[in-house]
Amino acid sequence: MSHRVLVEAGPAAGVAVLKFRNPPVNALSLEMLMELVISLEKLENDKAVRGIVITAENPGIFLAGLDLTEMCGRNPAHYAKYWEAVQELWLRLYQSSKVLVAAINGACPAGGCLASLTCDYRVMADNPKYTIGLNETQLGIIAPFWFKDTLVNTVGHRAAEQALQLGTLFPPAKALQVGIVDQVVPEEQLQSAALSVMAQWLAIPDHARQLTKTMMRKPTVDQLVKQREADIQSFVGLISQDSIQRALQTYLQKLRQKKG
Ligand SMILES: CCCCCCCCCCCC/C=C/CC(=O)SCCNC(=O)CCNC(=O)[C@H](O)C(C)(C)COP(=O)(O)OP(=O)(O)OC[C@H]1O[C@@H](n2cnc3c(N)ncnc32)[C@H](O)[C@@H]1OP(=O)(O)O
Predict the structure, then answer these.
(1) Would you kindly state where each structural domain of the chain is located, as residue ranges?
(2) Is the CB of 257 within 6 Å of ligand 1?
(3) Ligand 1 in contact with 147 (CB < 6 A)?
(4) Beta carbons within 8 Å of 111's beta carbon, 6+ residues apart
């Protein structure tokens, strides 16, 4: 039984809705990553499900990205286990045979943005408080190559390079302009817009669409698959560095002090 991920039958036949519910900010903790992988595996094996709308249960924060507390003050074995789970979620999402539509109903930084980029289509609520992007450099860390590749595949090399170097978090209109999302709609129309896009995608025969998706994505997937262990070791080495730990601690403190 999953606590942090809710899966519901959608209003349309063949569509499931997967909702993040990991308060306070839907950070991707190790437990949440594992629950997501299990939920996605079940959906992947369910022949009645052809498409999945991915959204947050509570509007405001879609996903706050990776859980910073999993990457601070832990031991190398923990970092390795955590990173393997991050890889596993990306591989499941990016290779899913289902149509994935992200209904972005809140803040969508870093790992949250990455999760939405694995979807086939992104609809974002038109709320100026919501931003999306790979903001890793702002934390003093760098997006791994497969985060970068996922962004490049979506927006092209030049836009990705600029967004990655600056760690830009785009508000909805800018996100649409740069192509990081496909559609921006009034907040109250987000779910219906996501379902309407889903219907268009489901009008295509599954096997033809699935083979095309694999053809487009396999080269990117293969890059990680062939060096998964090396990528884990590289993450563990970098994240364990004192300078990186200090940068992450400072960022976490800034988040905590924001309230005070
Ligand atoms: C020079 C060489 C460098 C080499 C470096 C190599 C490094 C190795 C590679 C590493 C790659 C790692 C990749 C990481 C990708 C990520 O996803 S990192 C996470 C990025 N996420 C963010 O930046 C989001 C941060 N959060 C926010 O901006 C805001 O919290 C919010 C907009 C999501 C929500 O705002 P609000 O509603 O105002 O809530 P807050 O008061 O800010 O937060 C409440 C509570 O939650 C805690 N929190 C927020 N985000 C996270 C998070 N991602 N992880 C863990 N915890 C989080 C926040 O601290 C508050 O906690 P307290 O209640 O104060 O305890």
Answers:
(1) 5-203
(2) no
(3) no
(4) 28, 63, 65, 66, 86
Closest C-alpha to ligand 1, atom 33: 64
Name the residues annotated as catalytic.
66, 111, 135-136
What is the mean predicted confidence (pLDDT) over 94-121?
98
In sequence order, the 6+-apart residues with CB closer than 8 A to the CB of 94 are: 118, 150, 217, 220, 221
- What pTM value is reported for the model? 0.97
Label residue 240 by pLDDT band (50, 70, 90).
very high
User: What is the sign, positive or negative, of the torsion defined by CA atoms of 26, 72, 245, 85?
Assistant: negative
Residues 116, 220 contacting (CB under 8 angstroms): no
Domain 5-203 has CATH 3.30.70.1450: no
Cis amide linkage into residue 24, ω under 30° from 0: yes
